[in-house]
TrEMBL record:
It comes from Leptospira noguchii str. 2001034031. The lineage of its organism: Bacteria, Pseudomonadati, Spirochaetota, Spirochaetia, Leptospirales. This is Uncharacterized protein.
Amino acid sequence: MFRKNRKFGLRILSLIKLHYLRYAYNVSDKKKSTGKKSPGGTFYLPSLLEGFLRAAAEA
């Protein structure tokens, strides 16, 4: 049981990491193209929560 839960936790962590990396990449991409600062934190948290909830629903 514990091993299964640990696997699930690791999966969620990796999903979050992927989500964060994709977000960071998008922001840097926008900065390059427009030259303006993007409003970072506003998009980050909702998308992170969304990814977390999606992972929980899939399991």
